[in-house]
Amino acid sequence: MVNKNYKYTLAFIKRGDEVLMLNRNKSPWMGSWNGVGGKEEPNESAIECIKREVFEETEININVNNVFDKGVVTWNTYDSNGLGLHVYLIIVPIEFEYHTPKVTREGILDWKKISWISDFNNTGVSSNIPYFINDIINEEIRYNHYCEFEGNVIKKVTKEKI
Length: 162
Description:
By secondary structure, the protein is α+β, with helices and mostly antiparallel strands. It is 17% helix and 43% strand. It holds the Pfam family NUDIX.
């Protein structure tokens, strides 16, 4: 059974064959390219959180009609960020202008090709993302992508429909 009460969110903003990624300044995944997101505020829903976090991290005011709930990403090791998060796909039009690279307090934002993000040989992306990014982008099904780590090393990722 998947816990639906995770307090963190993550979004991938897709424009054509690119995704807006953040090279993070701090943990978790400091120095790695990742989606944008963060912690829910008290009494805030996951969708309200992702809308707020996207604006705070990118200054993009998203339309919730362009936000798609893609399930959760969970993992086996506990740290200060809990054991999972809600994951979303946000689709913006191909003509959407957002100039990058852009330096923010969270890190550096830049558009990256999906093929680059999903390449298992890419050591610059958070190590679990290549395992699930294509499902997030291409599948209509919501999944729990369960990531098994040994220390900081990803060992395997399994997925289950939710």
